[in-house]
Design goal:
Blueprint (H helix, E strand, L loop, with lengths): L4 H20 L6 H8 L3 H7 L3 H26 L6 H13 L2 H16 L2 H25 L1 H7 L1 H21 L6 H11 L6
Helix pairs in contact: 1-2, 1-6, 4-5, 4-6, 4-7, 5-9, 5-10, 6-7, 6-9, 7-8, 7-9, 8-9
Length: about 190
Amino acid sequence: MPETKEESVKARILRVARNLIAQQGIYKTSLAEISREAGISRGTLFYYFPSKQDLLYQIMEESIQELTEKVVAAIKEIQSNTKTRDIFYLLLRYIGESHALNQTNFHLFQEAMAKNQRLKKRFQESYRQWQSLMGEHICQLFPKTAARYGPQNLAALMLALIDGVGLQSLLEYGSLDYKALARAIAGIFQEDSL
């Protein structure tokens, strides 16, 4: 189904806002700058997003959705005979190579943790949903480890790993050795090696 004009304008606003936030952070990104870069009036921006909070929430939701899609896509590539280290290599590479997404998520996370209680609450809700979804997928890959340590614990560990790799990719962009990291992590999950 083709995108309507309204969807197109909203998508453009979100794309511009994400790019600006990734480049310069939330505080240095103004609504005036977003509307100017998107080629729309401030009134049009406020029609779609009545406040900066609403815009940030939508960006956060889309960022989590995009990250989830990347991880699920990586999981779907995994065959039943895939070695554990190759599973982790695929996941780490997908996350680490999502530089712009990692930058945006870092700024959103920083804002949510610093002082924006409304964004923090929404972030926590979305994160819990993401953890549950990731738990389902990860537990299918590592059933013995999930049974031994609990699916929620395994999901929490995997999210910590994903978040950590995302942050490290920002600090050491291009220098992470995903294969070496995957081998190290696979050692932890050795009992599920296929």
